[in-house]
Each structure stands twice: as C-alpha cells, then as structure tokens.
Write the structure tokens for this entry.
Amino acid sequence: MTHLLQWIGRLGDKTGAAARMSVNFPQSTADGLGPQRIERGEYVTKLTISGMTCHVRGGLHIAIIGSGSGAFAAAIRAVEEGARVTMIERGTLGGTCVNVGCVPSKIMIQAAHVAHLRSSSPFDDGISAQAPAINRKKLFAQQQARVDELRQSKYQSILESHEAIEWVRGQARFVDGHTLAIAGESGAERRLGFDRCLIATGARPAIPPIPGLEGTPYWTSTEALASATIPARLAVIGSSVVAVELAQAFARLGSRVTLLARSTLFFREDPAIGETLARVFRDEGIEVLEYTEAQRIEYIEEEFRLSSKHGELRADRLLIATGRTPNTRGLGLDMAAVEIDQRGAVVVDDQLRTSTPAIYAAGDCTNQPQFVYVAAAAGTRAAINMTGGVAALDLRAMPAVVFTDPQVATVGLSEAAAKLEGIEVESRLLTLDNVPRALANFDTRGFIKLVAEVGSNRLIGVQAVTSQAGELIQSAALAVHHRMTVDELADRLFPYLTMVEGLKLAAQTFTRDVKQLSCCAG
Ligand SMILES: Cc1cc2nc3c(=O)[nH]c(=O)nc-3n(C[C@H](O)[C@H](O)[C@H](O)COP(=O)(O)OP(=O)(O)OC[C@H]3O[C@@H](n4cnc5c(N)ncnc54)[C@H](O)[C@@H]3O)c2cc1C
C-alpha cells in the first residue's frame, strides 16, 4: 500500500495533474505491497485524498440504511458506479414520500381543491355552486391505489431490475465504523460488514410534551392521510408545512378546523407570507389561533379537550403536526463515532460526509432541509462520493413549496435573512392585482416579492404566495442560481397570461411603475 501510494504521488508529480486508474479490488480486504492488509474503504479514501479520480469497480460493498428516496437515489447511482449495495429497511419499502408523505398528501389536497371549487369559486354567479357530498372511503381507496402503483413502479421494480441491490428486511444499528447488526422480524440478529455506509433513515413526526397528550388517540399526518372519515371538528397543533396543508385540505373536505400556532404562520419566513395565508385561511372559515399553545389535553367520551389561553377547545380529532424528528435513536451512532446535533440530526457537510470517514448520510435524518428532492439529490451525491468521486450538494438556490391554496414558494434569501448575513438589499413586493393571470382568474390573493443585492442588482431571493407558485418558483430558482440581475430578469420574454409573468413584472418594479405598462409587460 505504502509503495502504491508513493507511486501514485510520483505519477501525480510527473503529470502535474490528478491521474486516473482502474483498480480491481473485489474482496473487503487485500494484501498491499507494504506489510499491512488494507481495507478497501481505506484504500479508496487514500486514493481520493491523494488526488486520484477513483472509480471503484469490482464489488465495493455499500450498506444503505432505509429505503426511502435518499436511499434509492444513492443505491441506483452506487450500482451504476460498480458497487454492490445492501439496502436495509425496517418498515414499508419506499419510505415516507410515496407511502405517507408527498404522494398521498398531494392527492388528498387536490381532491380537497376540487371539492372547494365545486362549492365556491370566483365564477359562482355564472356557474351554479353546490356543496359536494364527500365519500372519504372512495377518495382514500383512489389515493391508496395511486400510492401502491407508484411504490411498485418507482421502488419495487427498481429493486427487481438491479441485481446488485440486495434488499434486507430488518432494523439496523452500528456495531462499529465498519459493521452493522440487523435485527430481523424474528428478533434474530445478523452482522453485516461494509466498506461504506449511507444512513438514510428519514424522520418521524415530532410529538410535543403537552400534558395529557400521551395515551390519547391523536393523529399524526400518517393517520390523518389514512383516515376513513372526515371529522366534523378537527384541531391542528402546529404551523409546519404539513399542518397548514392538511388543515386546509380537511377544511375543504368538510371539517371545522382550528389551528393552534405557537407563533405566527411561517414565522421563519417573510412576515407577508404568514399574514397572507392566515387571512386566506380565516376567509375560508379556518380558525387560526396564533401565539397559542395547548397547555393540557384530555380525551373524554371520544372528544378532545384542549386548554389554552383562549379557554377550552373541543374537537373530534386532533392532528399533531409540529415538525419531524430525525430517526437516529437506536442506530448506535456513538458506536461508529457519528456526530449528531441537538435535534438528533446526523451532521453532514456538503459532500454528505459524517464525522466518520466510511459513513455518509442523506435526507431527513440529517441537518439538511426535509424535502424529498433534497434527500434524493443528497443520496446521488453521497453515492458518487462513496465510490471515489467528488460531488457537493449546493442548497443556495433550493426552491421550497407549500401546497396550500394559494401556494407558498420561496427560494434564496428573505430580506431579513439577507440582512442577518450582512447583505444590503433592496426589495419589491408586487401584489397580484398587477398580474394579468391573477386578474383573469378573479383570484388576486397573494404577492410576489423579489430581494436584490444593492450595488450588483443580483436577485438573491424570491417569496411568492400565488396559485401555481410552485411552478413559477423554479424560474426564480434558475435566475438566483445563475446570478441574474433584476434588470436581466425584467428583460426576458415571459408568456402572457401565465402566473410566472408576475416574476418579470415584479422585476420591472425596480425601475418603473408597472401600473403604467400596457397589457403585456414588454
Ligand atoms: C405528510 C407529508 C407530506 C410531505 N410532502 C412533501 C412534498 O410535497 N414535497 C417534498 O419535497 N417533501 C415532502 N415531504 C417530505 C418528504 O416526504 C421527505 O423529505 C422524504 O420522504 C425523506 O426521504 P428520506 O429518504 O430521507 O427518508 P424516508 O423516506 O423517511 O425513508 C427512511 C426509511 O428508513 C427506515 N428506517 C429508519 N430507521 C431504520 C433502521 N434503523 N433500520 C432500517 N430501516 C430504518 C424507515 O422505515 C424509512 O422507510 C412530506 C412529508 C410528509 C410527512
């Protein structure tokens, strides 16, 4: 090994650049040219550190804990790079997004949107509106069928078509920095050695320590999405993305919803977002109690009773949606010297490396934002790095979407966040009565706000509350990523009568009064 590394060093000196070589190293350990035996993981690390581009073929063994989006993205990339993968899952194949997260929630939200439009729309004078009868059992069956179909096509069939991915059912924990113990359903435990390991264990609903809550039949998002009925009265504790999305969906499907938020809605974001959404919710009949904490909860005669500073609130169902806690307890991370933060999240750098060289982490179990596309992008990059390449995850232009109606979408920095970073900014907020698409829709709730750096005029952040905000934000994300100025954005062609045209109009407000423009922003 020593000789080999010396040779690599000499090669690098001669060429003046990182060299490229192919190494066949099929077993977990091999005899080096020096006196010691070398573990393949250590070998790859040393080659990478020495500046070599190192594509490892011939059986690098990667253990992946979890089978969600982060895990699958990593597994697919790792086998493409020639590795052998063992994927360990204790629950349902596919993890959160497909089974109990993005997919079922977006189906339920869309059904609720249709129900809402049937009972109320801006065109009710010309199209008679009628409160629809909701058959939740049928809606749920439809939702679950699509979930099952996507789990099959996006997860199960991928396992079936990749021989190099072995799937193991069980609960994994670290024994040391190169070995896992896997407890199967029978309780029997087996050991699994690895060259590299990816922790992709996701997160679970956080449950606040409210007196009386434990032992009551409260819902988390999982039970709410699988409910066979729509409760007449629903109390929601929390102001997370999941809280606001499900609060509005249940309200539109017929529940009388009360939402208790410890602060304002979206308190970490631009204040205009929370103010707009709270107003929209109240207009729809959702009671939003800001700065309100449930002090005690009782469940008596199939009814929840919540005491707060507003007195007693009674509800048939209680949804707890106060964020998600990383699944790291019981993983034995201390045995492998993997560092976690105060929330229990695995600390990773932008290359998804943990504090232990052979161990990487991706997705909701880490200190990165909890979105499925972040988990998947992290998984892919972790796989590249685990197999000897170099890839970093850049989150500076990460779009985020909340699927309320109107939707909330953001990218980059808010005005306050930019100021905290010491960036001097100028911003413009365009109300939707200036956007032709919103006028044509007879729905001018919301705004588009642009944040630009003073001096360079570069766009560094966008916040939008509009219908279709999730679609328009990707254009904003590209503009932020490519360091466009607001003038460049204002100068682009945007199709007329689209919501994304609002971005151009908002950019134009930096230099002119959009009210003075003709119909199309030129
Ligand atoms: C209601 C809801 C709606 C959402 N909507 C969206 C959305 O619209 N857009 C979006 O981007 N994101 C959304 N998310 C978030 C998104 O679902 C997650 O960010 C994403 O699924 C995380 O993927 P992951 O791979 O990190 O973990 P997961 O998909 O959670 O997978 C982790 C897996 O690891 C397994 N596991 C844990 N510990 C062990 C162990 N010790 N041994 C073996 N297996 C283990 C778990 O059983 C689980 O299957 C939503 C989440 C929820 C709850």
